[in-house]
């Protein structure tokens, strides 16, 4: 789709909010035979569907010939909202949503049955409080997102987003999840960020250097409770902690997967530096741990900008065995062949 607006239109087409059993009008079904769904009271064979206006709701239908040549009147049976909802909720129904669908999907489908007028035209944007667009090739957070004036949760994981313009984000946002994208610069996002944001997810992106760490302060996120910066390229633990310490509401922090997490005193330094932290890297911070690391925040000299990695090589294939070469005699004029190998580890 490229943009969020295009992805949302594709999402609406997938939900089919104007098709039976959703949408406007009084639905009338004409069934063939008397076959009923087992245990559900749902007819099995659907011959035709047609929305009827109130003016024709009670109109007579033309008699048709029965199996024995006798004329048989088929009165229209207007569906109740309960019957239409049953078609959406019953797992054996052809209109049932898949088990892994989101609560938002189910809510919109049910609203399309009970109050379809609320989803007509631009009104559908007012009904959406949670928007989840995962792995849809989205590259741009466009200004069309401002139509969602009640939006509180925006999940855009596993797309191709490299930058987010804060002017295109609804001010009502409380959750913004951008995990598994290509975000490398937060300047546009922090120009005018949503003031009520409580969770910011930036895991598995391309953040690196002090130029990005400066954006994690109370000046930009006064109400932030949860922050995920896992699996980026952040290296300056001291600098980052000095910024995070201004976030008075921060309770959940994820930094695993960054180079700074390799520092031996990494966890203890964070636990002591951020006394209000409840969960660090998905592990609860308990009172015993906080007591154990008490005072570590006042010893920054223990924070080394280096890490030790030990690599053990069990077997190497494709290299000549030195033992197979015959030792050259002293004074021999035969050419001497020397082999050298270099193994490089990239972090």
Describe what you observe in this structure.
The protein is an alpha/beta fold and 347 residues long. It is built from eight helices and 13 strands. The chain has helices at residues 4-15, 81-89, 103-114, 123-126, 210-213, 237-244, 266-273, 287-292; strands at residues 26-31, 46-52, 64-65, 71-72, 77-78, 130-132, 153-155, 175-177, 199-201, 226-228, 252-254, 279-280, 283-284. An eight-stranded mixed β-sheet has the order 6-7-8-9-10-11-12-13, with helices on one face. It has a three-stranded antiparallel β-sheet with strand order 2-1-5, with no helix packed on it. The chain has a two-stranded antiparallel ribbon with strand order 3-4. Helix 2 runs antiparallel to helix 3 (103-114). The chain is extended, with a radius of gyration of 32 Å. The model is unreliable at 29-75 (pLDDT under 50). Keywords: Leucine-rich repeat, Repeat. This is LRC43 protein. InterPro entries: Leu-rich_rpt, LRR_dom_sf.
Determine the mean pLDDT: 81
Question: What's the Cα radius of gyration?
Answer: 32 Å
Q: Unreliable segments (pLDDT under 50, ≥5 consecutive)?
A: 29-75
Total helical elements? 8
Query: What is the CA-CA span between the terminal residues?
Result: 34 Å
Q: How much helical structure, as a percent, in the residues?
A: 10-25%
Shape label: extended
Strand order of the largest sheet: 6-7-8-9-10-11-12-13
Alpha-beta classification = alpha/beta
SSE string: HEEEEEHHHEEEEHEHEHEEH
Total beta strands: 13
Beta-strand portion reads 5-15%
Oligomer classification: single chain
Q: Main beta sheet: strand number and arrangement?
A: 8 strands, mixed
Keywords: Leucine-rich repeat, Repeat
Protein name: LRC43 protein
InterPro entries: Leu-rich_rpt, LRR_dom_sf
